[in-house]
Amino acid sequence: MASSRKNRSIYIDAEALSTLALVKAGLISPVAKLMDEKTANEVDKTKMYKGFPYPFAFLLAPKGKKNRETLLTANRGEVLDLYSRSGKVGELIVDETFAIDPEERLHHIYGTSDPSHPGVKNTMARLGDMAVSGEYFVDYPLIDDNIKRIKSMIHRTGANKISAMMLAANPFNRAHERMIRQALNTSDLMVIFLRKPFTTEGLRYDIRYNALTKFIDDYLPRNRVIVIPFENTYIFAGYNELILDALLAKNYGCDELVVGKNHAGLGLYYDKNRLNSIFDSFKDIDITITTVDEYVYCDTCKTLVSTRTCPHGEHHHTHYHSNSIMKLIQSGIIPPSILVRKEVSASILTALFPDRFDNLQEMHQAIMPGSGLLEQQSEEQFYIKLAELYQTTSLT
């Protein structure tokens, strides 16, 4: 007769659930389970796991008074229900519980525990001081759907070389376009992992997704690019981000990871009195890392150029600084088309400022050239036409 005893529960947030699901699906392989105390200490010390580079221990240490009480009294072999905001999302069979130092954990992830660091601040709010290891399962359809979509695209296209790129696209600009096109020159299929953070900073995910797919649908061969939502959890943070990006891309079936040379994770660092680059960490990961030069707009070349190939000085260059472009957009100003394609800007501004214009049709007919027919114009079409007027040069 089955026992009617109800399992005790621990509560996890969406970020922890997403991370658990990634690992369970084999996408951060060779890590396939929560680490016990001995393994965790070894990984934190050596930065290796089963012969592969891995920057810090994979732990579940949820914050909360009730969670702490449950973990302090949990027994080996006990089944704990995993609950999130949506209800029960899985189960965990306890192998071991152990105390951790949250500040030390933050150092391993971010290289600092300074609460002014945005990643540290967010993780401090959700990190407890008791960890649990053991077999688990979680229900998270998004991950399974991502795997199926990529496999289906590979099968349908017969792609041999598959490249990956991790993009925030916050906002999507002309330099991103050039990076994607360059990678497509040598790849059969490009997988763009569009970062989907668990914060409200920057543009909403749907706005960034629509802007990116607007470019792909209109200006790239559709059967060679796929966009995958990439939930940017706390483990993909700090100076170890590229190692985990590479593991994720490899386990999704990609042969190459494309990154910009101005990526913060590409710096040099000292370890045991030896100067290292992040590439030293990739030698055991079976994936090619390709770096792309920084692109600028040169007012002498009159086009987008690499800083390595342009002979003109810095004072001729317009840089693609996401924060600066973002400030224009958040102020409701359409960026110059040399920074952001007008169709992309129109998509973003229409989503950010819906119904911002009174008498849009009257305004459109008064300012814009047209066919002579009275046609209903959308806000998106208005922004595109406005950008075209900005590009008129005979009077400037």
Task: Describe what this molecule looks like in 3D.
- By secondary structure, the chain is an alpha/beta fold.
- The protein has three domains: 8-138, Sulfate adenylyltransferase; 141-295, Rossmann fold; 356-396, no CATH class.
- Helices cover 35% and strands 23% of the residues.
- It has a five-stranded parallel β-sheet with strand order 12-11-10-13-16, sandwiched between helices. It has a four-stranded mixed β-sheet with strand order 1-5-6-9. It has a three-stranded antiparallel β-sheet with strand order 4-8-7, with helices on one face.
- The model is unreliable at 267-276 (pLDDT under 50).
Residue fraction in strands: 15-25%
Question: Number of helical runs?
Answer: 13
- Mean pLDDT, all residues: 87
* Main sheet properties: 5 strands, parallel
Q: Percent helix among the residues?
A: 25-40%
Q: What class do helices, strands and sheet pairing give?
A: alpha/beta
Q: What is the molecular shape?
A: globular
How many domains in all? 3
Number of strands: 19
Q: Which characteristics define this entry?
A:
396 residues; 19 strands; alpha/beta; Sulfate adenylyltransferase; five-stranded parallel beta sheet; Rossmann fold; globular
